[in-house]
Design goal:
The protein has eleven helices and 13 strands. The protein is an alpha/beta fold.
Protein backbone atom coordinates (compact mmCIF):
# COMPACT_ATOMS: atom_id res chain seq x y z
CA UNK A 1 0.00 0.00 0.00
CA UNK A 2 1.34 3.43 -0.94
CA UNK A 3 1.33 6.37 1.49
CA UNK A 4 -0.77 9.01 -0.25
CA UNK A 5 -2.61 10.04 -3.40
CA UNK A 6 -3.46 13.63 -4.31
CA UNK A 7 -6.91 13.45 -5.89
CA UNK A 8 -8.45 16.33 -7.84
CA UNK A 9 -12.11 16.28 -8.88
CA UNK A 10 -12.73 18.00 -12.20
CA UNK A 11 -15.79 19.11 -14.15
CA UNK A 12 -15.20 21.36 -17.14
CA UNK A 13 -12.14 22.76 -15.40
CA UNK A 14 -9.77 22.86 -18.34
CA UNK A 15 -8.60 26.39 -17.52
CA UNK A 16 -8.04 25.61 -13.83
CA UNK A 17 -6.15 22.41 -14.61
CA UNK A 18 -3.93 24.26 -17.07
CA UNK A 19 -3.15 26.91 -14.48
CA UNK A 20 -2.79 24.95 -11.24
CA UNK A 21 -1.76 21.39 -12.10
CA UNK A 22 1.87 22.45 -12.74
CA UNK A 23 2.35 23.47 -9.09
CA UNK A 24 0.71 20.25 -7.89
CA UNK A 25 3.01 18.15 -10.07
CA UNK A 26 6.13 20.13 -9.18
CA UNK A 27 5.60 20.25 -5.42
CA UNK A 28 3.93 16.89 -4.71
CA UNK A 29 5.78 13.70 -3.84
CA UNK A 30 2.55 11.68 -3.99
CA UNK A 31 0.78 10.15 -6.96
CA UNK A 32 -1.58 12.65 -8.61
CA UNK A 33 -5.01 11.56 -9.82
CA UNK A 34 -7.83 13.44 -11.53
CA UNK A 35 -11.41 12.20 -11.29
CA UNK A 36 -13.33 13.64 -14.22
CA UNK A 37 -17.08 14.16 -13.75
CA UNK A 38 -17.86 13.56 -17.45
CA UNK A 39 -16.58 16.97 -18.57
CA UNK A 40 -17.83 18.36 -21.88
CA UNK A 41 -14.82 20.65 -22.42
CA UNK A 42 -11.29 19.57 -23.38
CA UNK A 43 -10.17 18.67 -19.85
CA UNK A 44 -9.34 15.04 -20.54
CA UNK A 45 -7.62 15.89 -23.83
CA UNK A 46 -5.50 18.44 -21.98
CA UNK A 47 -4.51 15.87 -19.36
CA UNK A 48 -3.42 13.27 -21.89
CA UNK A 49 -1.57 15.83 -24.02
CA UNK A 50 0.18 18.01 -21.43
CA UNK A 51 0.10 16.05 -18.17
CA UNK A 52 0.64 12.37 -19.04
CA UNK A 53 2.09 11.72 -15.57
CA UNK A 54 -1.32 12.44 -14.03
CA UNK A 55 -3.60 9.41 -13.60
CA UNK A 56 -7.18 9.81 -14.86
CA UNK A 57 -10.40 8.25 -13.56
CA UNK A 58 -13.21 9.10 -16.01
CA UNK A 59 -16.81 8.95 -14.75
CA UNK A 60 -19.85 8.45 -16.96
CA UNK A 61 -21.88 11.37 -15.56
CA UNK A 62 -21.52 14.48 -13.40
CA UNK A 63 -22.08 13.17 -9.88
CA UNK A 64 -21.18 16.46 -8.19
CA UNK A 65 -18.48 16.89 -5.57
CA UNK A 66 -19.81 14.26 -3.19
CA UNK A 67 -20.74 11.53 -5.64
CA UNK A 68 -17.78 12.23 -7.90
CA UNK A 69 -15.29 11.64 -5.12
CA UNK A 70 -17.20 8.62 -3.83
CA UNK A 71 -17.27 6.87 -7.20
CA UNK A 72 -13.75 7.89 -8.16
CA UNK A 73 -12.12 6.90 -4.88
CA UNK A 74 -13.67 3.44 -5.13
CA UNK A 75 -11.10 2.87 -7.89
CA UNK A 76 -8.29 3.61 -5.39
CA UNK A 77 -9.68 1.65 -2.45
CA UNK A 78 -6.99 -0.35 -0.67
CA UNK A 79 -4.13 1.23 -2.64
CA UNK A 80 -3.30 4.24 -0.41
CA UNK A 81 -3.19 5.03 3.31
CA UNK A 82 -4.29 8.63 2.77
CA UNK A 83 -6.08 10.68 0.15
CA UNK A 84 -5.55 14.42 -0.18
CA UNK A 85 -8.70 15.80 -1.76
CA UNK A 86 -7.76 18.97 -3.62
CA UNK A 87 -9.85 21.48 -5.56
CA UNK A 88 -8.67 22.14 -9.10
CA UNK A 89 -8.25 25.87 -8.30
CA UNK A 90 -5.58 25.47 -5.61
CA UNK A 91 -1.89 26.38 -5.83
CA UNK A 92 0.23 24.28 -3.50
CA UNK A 93 3.63 24.90 -1.89
CA UNK A 94 6.84 22.81 -1.64
CA UNK A 95 6.46 19.53 0.30
CA UNK A 96 2.87 20.39 1.23
CA UNK A 97 1.69 16.79 0.84
CA UNK A 98 4.63 15.36 2.80
CA UNK A 99 3.92 17.80 5.64
CA UNK A 100 0.25 16.81 5.85
CA UNK A 101 1.13 13.12 5.77
CA UNK A 102 3.76 13.66 8.49
CA UNK A 103 1.17 15.35 10.71
CA UNK A 104 -1.25 12.47 10.20
CA UNK A 105 1.44 9.88 10.93
CA UNK A 106 2.71 11.62 14.07
CA UNK A 107 -0.68 12.42 15.60
CA UNK A 108 -2.92 9.46 16.33
CA UNK A 109 -6.69 9.42 16.12
CA UNK A 110 -7.16 11.90 13.27
CA UNK A 111 -9.48 11.03 10.39
CA UNK A 112 -8.88 14.27 8.46
CA UNK A 113 -6.49 17.23 8.51
CA UNK A 114 -6.54 20.47 6.53
CA UNK A 115 -3.70 22.97 5.95
CA UNK A 116 -3.86 26.74 6.26
CA UNK A 117 -5.88 27.93 3.25
CA UNK A 118 -5.01 31.39 1.96
CA UNK A 119 -6.53 33.44 -0.84
CA UNK A 120 -4.87 33.05 -4.24
CA UNK A 121 -6.01 36.53 -5.27
CA UNK A 122 -4.94 38.14 -1.97
CA UNK A 123 -2.14 35.94 -0.60
CA UNK A 124 -1.78 37.92 2.64
CA UNK A 125 -5.36 37.05 3.58
CA UNK A 126 -7.18 33.86 4.46
CA UNK A 127 -9.48 32.16 2.01
CA UNK A 128 -13.21 31.86 2.59
CA UNK A 129 -13.27 28.05 2.33
CA UNK A 130 -11.67 26.66 5.47
CA UNK A 131 -9.22 29.47 6.27
CA UNK A 132 -7.57 28.63 9.62
CA UNK A 133 -9.75 25.68 10.58
CA UNK A 134 -13.52 25.18 10.65
CA UNK A 135 -16.09 25.10 13.46
CA UNK A 136 -19.89 24.94 13.76
CA UNK A 137 -22.09 26.70 16.29
CA UNK A 138 -25.13 25.27 18.09
CA UNK A 139 -27.29 25.88 15.00
CA UNK A 140 -24.68 24.21 12.76
CA UNK A 141 -23.69 27.48 11.08
CA UNK A 142 -20.08 27.02 9.91
CA UNK A 143 -17.33 29.53 10.59
CA UNK A 144 -13.53 29.53 10.57
CA UNK A 145 -10.54 31.00 12.25
CA UNK A 146 -9.67 33.74 9.81
CA UNK A 147 -13.18 33.99 8.32
CA UNK A 148 -16.45 34.89 10.03
CA UNK A 149 -19.29 35.13 7.47
CA UNK A 150 -17.86 37.49 4.80
CA UNK A 151 -15.20 39.09 7.01
CA UNK A 152 -11.75 37.79 6.06
CA UNK A 153 -8.70 38.26 8.32
CA UNK A 154 -5.16 39.04 7.25
CA UNK A 155 -2.71 36.21 7.87
CA UNK A 156 -0.23 37.46 10.48
CA UNK A 157 0.82 34.06 11.78
CA UNK A 158 -1.96 34.04 14.38
CA UNK A 159 -3.13 30.57 13.28
CA UNK A 160 0.19 28.84 12.62
CA UNK A 161 -0.58 26.10 15.16
CA UNK A 162 -2.02 22.59 15.12
CA UNK A 163 -5.45 22.31 16.73
CA UNK A 164 -8.55 20.12 16.75
CA UNK A 165 -11.40 21.57 14.70
CA UNK A 166 -14.97 20.57 13.85
CA UNK A 167 -14.45 20.22 10.11
CA UNK A 168 -11.76 20.27 7.44
CA UNK A 169 -12.29 22.14 4.18
CA UNK A 170 -13.10 20.22 1.04
CA UNK A 171 -10.89 22.66 -0.87
CA UNK A 172 -7.89 20.80 0.55
CA UNK A 173 -8.14 18.02 3.09
CA UNK A 174 -6.10 14.94 3.90
CA UNK A 175 -8.37 12.07 4.87
CA UNK A 176 -7.54 8.61 6.17
CA UNK A 177 -8.55 6.37 3.26
CA UNK A 178 -9.71 3.43 5.38
CA UNK A 179 -11.91 5.64 7.55
CA UNK A 180 -13.30 7.46 4.50
CA UNK A 181 -14.55 4.18 3.05
CA UNK A 182 -15.75 2.90 6.44
CA UNK A 183 -17.94 6.03 6.67
CA UNK A 184 -19.26 5.39 3.13
CA UNK A 185 -17.56 8.59 2.03
CA UNK A 186 -19.52 11.76 1.43
CA UNK A 187 -23.30 11.81 1.39
CA UNK A 188 -23.83 11.69 -2.38
CA UNK A 189 -27.34 13.14 -2.03
CA UNK A 190 -25.76 16.46 -1.07
CA UNK A 191 -24.29 16.71 -4.61
CA UNK A 192 -22.17 19.71 -3.53
CA UNK A 193 -21.66 22.01 -0.52
CA UNK A 194 -21.62 21.10 3.20
CA UNK A 195 -20.67 17.48 2.43
CA UNK A 196 -17.23 17.77 4.07
CA UNK A 197 -18.76 19.26 7.23
CA UNK A 198 -21.25 16.40 7.37
CA UNK A 199 -18.50 13.81 6.85
CA UNK A 200 -16.33 15.34 9.56
CA UNK A 201 -19.31 15.48 11.95
CA UNK A 202 -20.02 11.80 11.34
CA UNK A 203 -16.34 11.00 11.89
CA UNK A 204 -16.32 12.91 15.18
CA UNK A 205 -19.46 11.05 16.27
CA UNK A 206 -17.49 7.85 15.75
CA UNK A 207 -14.68 9.10 18.02
CA UNK A 208 -12.22 10.33 15.39
CA UNK A 209 -10.57 13.76 15.53
CA UNK A 210 -10.33 16.42 12.82
CA UNK A 211 -7.19 18.55 12.68
CA UNK A 212 -5.83 21.81 11.30
CA UNK A 213 -2.12 22.12 10.49
CA UNK A 214 -1.17 25.80 10.24
CA UNK A 215 2.44 25.08 9.28
CA UNK A 216 1.33 23.88 5.84
CA UNK A 217 -0.32 26.32 3.45
CA UNK A 218 -2.02 26.38 0.06
CA UNK A 219 -3.66 29.14 -1.99
CA UNK A 220 -7.27 28.80 -3.14
CA UNK A 221 -9.06 30.81 -5.82
CA UNK A 222 -12.53 30.10 -4.43
CA UNK A 223 -15.82 30.50 -6.26
CA UNK A 224 -14.41 28.91 -9.39
CA UNK A 225 -17.38 26.54 -9.58
CA UNK A 226 -20.19 28.53 -7.92
CA UNK A 227 -19.95 32.07 -6.56
CA UNK A 228 -20.85 32.44 -2.87
CA UNK A 229 -23.80 34.69 -3.79
CA UNK A 230 -25.22 32.24 -6.33
CA UNK A 231 -28.85 31.22 -5.55
CA UNK A 232 -28.07 27.60 -6.43
CA UNK A 233 -25.33 27.53 -3.81
CA UNK A 234 -27.68 29.13 -1.27
CA UNK A 235 -30.28 26.44 -2.01
CA UNK A 236 -27.73 23.63 -1.63
CA UNK A 237 -26.36 25.09 1.61
CA UNK A 238 -29.86 25.43 3.12
CA UNK A 239 -31.02 21.96 2.10
CA UNK A 240 -27.79 20.19 2.95
CA UNK A 241 -27.37 21.94 6.28
CA UNK A 242 -30.82 20.74 7.37
CA UNK A 243 -30.06 17.21 6.17
CA UNK A 244 -26.74 17.24 8.02
CA UNK A 245 -28.35 18.34 11.31
CA UNK A 246 -31.21 15.85 10.88
CA UNK A 247 -28.72 12.99 10.47
CA UNK A 248 -26.32 13.90 13.25
CA UNK A 249 -28.42 15.38 16.05
CA UNK A 250 -30.98 13.79 18.37
CA UNK A 251 -34.67 14.35 17.70
CA UNK A 252 -35.20 16.99 20.40
CA UNK A 253 -32.10 18.99 19.45
CA UNK A 254 -33.00 18.76 15.79
CA UNK A 255 -36.52 20.07 16.45
CA UNK A 256 -35.23 23.06 18.42
CA UNK A 257 -32.55 23.85 15.83
CA UNK A 258 -35.00 23.47 12.93
CA UNK A 259 -37.52 25.90 14.44
CA UNK A 260 -34.83 28.47 15.25
CA UNK A 261 -33.20 28.25 11.82
CA UNK A 262 -36.59 28.38 10.11
CA UNK A 263 -37.46 31.68 11.80
CA UNK A 264 -34.04 33.20 11.08
CA UNK A 265 -33.86 32.04 7.48
CA UNK A 266 -37.45 32.97 6.63
CA UNK A 267 -36.64 36.48 7.84
CA UNK A 268 -33.65 36.41 5.49
CA UNK A 269 -35.92 35.23 2.66
CA UNK A 270 -38.34 38.09 3.28
CA UNK A 271 -35.42 40.53 3.34
CA UNK A 272 -34.16 39.18 -0.01
CA UNK A 273 -37.66 39.51 -1.47
CA UNK A 274 -38.07 43.11 -0.31
CA UNK A 275 -34.68 44.00 -1.82
CA UNK A 276 -35.75 42.56 -5.15
CA UNK A 277 -33.50 39.49 -4.86
CA UNK A 278 -36.30 37.04 -5.58
CA UNK A 279 -33.98 34.23 -6.72
CA UNK A 280 -32.27 34.15 -3.30
CA UNK A 281 -35.62 34.24 -1.49
CA UNK A 282 -36.87 31.35 -3.61
CA UNK A 283 -33.63 29.43 -2.99
CA UNK A 284 -34.28 29.48 0.78
CA UNK A 285 -37.89 28.32 0.35
CA UNK A 286 -36.78 25.61 -2.07
CA UNK A 287 -34.09 24.42 0.36
CA UNK A 288 -36.66 23.84 3.10
CA UNK A 289 -39.14 22.26 0.70
CA UNK A 290 -36.59 19.81 -0.71
CA UNK A 291 -35.39 18.86 2.75
CA UNK A 292 -38.92 18.15 4.02
CA UNK A 293 -39.75 16.05 0.97
CA UNK A 294 -36.54 14.03 0.94
CA UNK A 295 -35.36 14.20 4.56
CA UNK A 296 -35.04 10.42 5.00
CA UNK A 297 -33.14 9.71 1.81
CA UNK A 298 -29.63 10.25 3.17
CA UNK A 299 -30.13 8.89 6.69
CA UNK A 300 -28.22 5.63 6.17
CA UNK A 301 -27.96 2.80 8.68
CA UNK A 302 -24.64 3.97 10.11
CA UNK A 303 -26.10 7.38 10.90
CA UNK A 304 -29.29 5.89 12.41
CA UNK A 305 -27.20 3.88 14.85
CA UNK A 306 -25.54 7.06 16.10
CA UNK A 307 -28.53 9.42 16.12
CA UNK A 308 -28.68 11.24 19.42
CA UNK A 309 -24.98 10.60 20.14
CA UNK A 310 -23.72 13.78 18.55
CA UNK A 311 -20.36 15.17 19.64
CA UNK A 312 -20.64 18.92 20.38
CA UNK A 313 -18.59 21.42 18.41
CA UNK A 314 -15.28 22.70 19.72
CA UNK A 315 -15.78 26.34 18.72
CA UNK A 316 -15.86 29.27 21.16
CA UNK A 317 -19.49 30.32 20.61
CA UNK A 318 -22.90 28.68 20.74
CA UNK A 319 -24.76 31.25 18.63
CA UNK A 320 -22.72 32.87 15.89
CA UNK A 321 -25.55 35.16 14.75
CA UNK A 322 -25.88 36.62 18.27
CA UNK A 323 -22.16 37.37 18.45
CA UNK A 324 -21.86 38.81 14.96
CA UNK A 325 -25.27 40.41 14.42
CA UNK A 326 -25.91 41.93 17.86
CA UNK A 327 -22.50 42.07 19.55
CA UNK A 328 -20.83 43.04 16.20
CA UNK A 329 -17.85 40.72 16.58
CA UNK A 330 -16.07 40.16 13.26
CA UNK A 331 -12.98 38.09 13.99
CA UNK A 332 -12.47 34.67 15.51
CA UNK A 333 -10.24 36.04 18.24
CA UNK A 334 -12.96 38.49 19.31
CA UNK A 335 -15.36 35.60 19.82
Amino acid sequence: MKSCAVVILNYNGEEMLQKFLPSVIEYSQSDVWVIDNSSTDQSTTLLSREFPQVNLIPLKANFGYAGGYNWGLEELKGKYKYYILLNSDVEVTPEWDLDLVASADLKSGYAAIQPKILSFQNPDYFDYAGAGGGFIDALAYPYCRGRIWEHIEKDEGQYDDFIDVDWASGACMLVNAKIFHQMNGFDAHFFAHMEEIDLCWRMRNKGWKIGYDGKTKVYHVGGATLARTNPKKLFLNIRNSLSMIFKNEGWLNFGLIFLTKFCLEMMAAISFFLKGEKANAQAIWKGYKEFLIHRNISEDQIVKENKGKSVPGKGPVKFLILNTGILKKKTFQSL
